[in-house]
């Protein structure tokens, strides 16, 4: 195999890996069934998360979901960067990976690049959610209010631990500037 063929093979393999990872689900995680996007829309407060570079130093984090005309979901994440002492926003778009009644979406904030958004637990009244990304490095606990009942919070942390997430690394998000 010559160098050009090897490069094509490598490029094709990397493209396949990137495309498949955009909608992957962590082992053991099952997206919620009977998901109703209409009920999920609106404002959510980030209660806790596994920290990662794109939310580092962020507090008072919220996510606002709105239905677009094309059926996709507009995502507006907002938070206060304590290091830069300023509010930051990121606007994106979410699309269902398969059926619209399954809590498995892919979200993009950077053009054609999508990442998994899996609703792994959801209150019957849509008051709280446990959300994962494509692997166990990404985890969020969301609620419709800036605070969450300790019993519910503990239950979600226990579920995350059973699913293989490093719950010792979970950080709670402050909501003092809202």
Automatic annotation (TrEMBL):
It comes from the Bacteria. One of its GO terms (biological process) is response to stress. Belongs to the calycin superfamily. Lipocalin family. Residues 36-174 form the Lipocalin/cytosolic fatty-acid binding domain. Keywords: Cell outer membrane, Lipid-binding, Lipoprotein, Membrane, Palmitate, Signal. It comes from Marinagarivorans cellulosilyticus. Involved in the storage or transport of lipids necessary for membrane maintenance under stressful conditions. Displays a binding preference for lysophospholipids. This is Outer membrane lipoprotein Blc. Residues 1-25 form the signal peptide. InterPro entries: Calycin, Lipocalin_ApoD, Lipocalin_bac, Lipocalin_Blc-like_dom, Lipocalin_CS, Lipocln_cytosolic_FA-bd_dom. It holds the Pfam family Lipocalin_2. The keyword Signal applies. GO terms for cellular component: cell outer membrane. Homodimer. It is a lipid-anchor. The keyword Ligase does not apply. GO terms for molecular function: lipid binding. CDD domains: lipocalin_Blc-like (cd19438). It is found in: Cell outer membrane. Its main location: membrane.
């Amino acid at each position: 195999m010559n160098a050009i063929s090897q490069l094509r093979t490598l490029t094709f393999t990397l493209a396949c890996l990137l495309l498949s990872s955009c909608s992957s689900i962590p082992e053991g995680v099952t997206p919620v069934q009977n998901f109703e996007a209409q009920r999920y829309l609106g404002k959510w407060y980030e209660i806790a998360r596994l920290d990662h570079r794109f939310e580092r130093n962020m507090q008072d984090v919220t996510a606002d979901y709105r239905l677009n005309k094309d059926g996709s979901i507009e995502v507006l994440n907002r938070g206060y960067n304590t290091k830069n002492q300023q509010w930051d926003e990121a606007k994106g778009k979410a699309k269902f990976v398969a059926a619209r009644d399954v809590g498995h979406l892919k979200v993009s904030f950077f053009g054609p690049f999508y990442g998994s958004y899996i609703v792994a637990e959801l209150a019957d009244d849509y008051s709280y959610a446990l959300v994962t990304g494509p692997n166990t490095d990404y985890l969020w606990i969301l609620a419709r209010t800036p605070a969450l009942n300790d019993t519910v919070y503990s239950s979600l942390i226990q579920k995350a631990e059973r699913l293989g997430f490093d719950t010792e690394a979970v950080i709670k998000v402050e909501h003092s500037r809202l």
